[in-house]
Amino acid sequence: MSAARHLIIDDTAAACFSTHFPERHFRIGHALCGHPLFERERLLALGKALPKRCVEFNAGDLPVSQDPGHTPRTGLTLEQTIERIAESGSWVALKYVETDPDYRRLLVDCVRQIAPHSEPRAAGTHQVEGYIFLSSPGAVTPFHFDDEHNFLLQLVGSKALHTWDKSVLGPLDIERYYGGAHRNVVYRQALDESCQRFTLQPGEGLHIPVHSPHWVKNGPAVSVSFSVTFRSRPLAREAAVHRLNAKLRRRGWPVRPYGRSKLDDGAKYFFIRAMRKAKRKLA
Length: 283
Hints:
Layout: E1 7-8, H1 11-20, E2 26-30, H2 40-49, E3 55-59, H3 78-83, E4 90-95, H4 101-118, E5 126-135, E6 140-144, E7 149-156, E8 159-163, H5 173-178, E9 196-200, E10 204-208, E11 214-218, E12 223-231, H6 233-250, H7 262-282
Antiparallel strand pairs: 1-2, 2-10, 3-4, 4-5, 5-12, 6-11, 7-10, 7-12, 8-9, 8-11
Helix pairs in contact: 6-7
């Protein structure tokens, strides 16, 4: 039995996959507006069922550059936050929703539609994960980047995404993240000139490239959005080299950042694979 066609990958979107994925932003449509899994009561039930580490909620009136260690709270419980989301000035993230069988089926169906277009460009689709964001009017998601292939689908309300190419990050910003730092990064006013701005309405989605820094501001109504994410073999290889670089740098070794030398990156990945193989044999 074929999966439901939740995404709208028309000729324009298909062409964007072939020319833009995975390095550039592009739009995609979807047919998930009104889906029962994104109704308020169902989201509250999901939030209660998820482990605490998979639920994040805080005040939504944040600066673009937010120290993650000092993110303000509203004093409300998760239930109160979701029930009063229209006036609570809050931001809610439900993470790894694929642990719920209903959401996993939906997520996998979406990725099955994406894979025929993404695989020729970044093969080895794996680690499929989903995130749902429920936000008050005007709420801000601070400047950050993500470590997965991400298709952000807007379901309710609107939001404006301010995005950049990953090249605007410092040479060590990404490496620090893989070494354990938070994904939030400091916003510099000089970045304004190179910003790409996308406004998403219900039924619209956006491919956000891996490590592309961005910040988000909700429109004048409550917003619900769904991030469909996965990883690929090339991304897994890059992440492994970043992690090794972070370890070597902590030990005082001179390290060439990822992407500066294909030969250097290849040698590091060969070493990583050899170490993994040796550990499996010892186990």
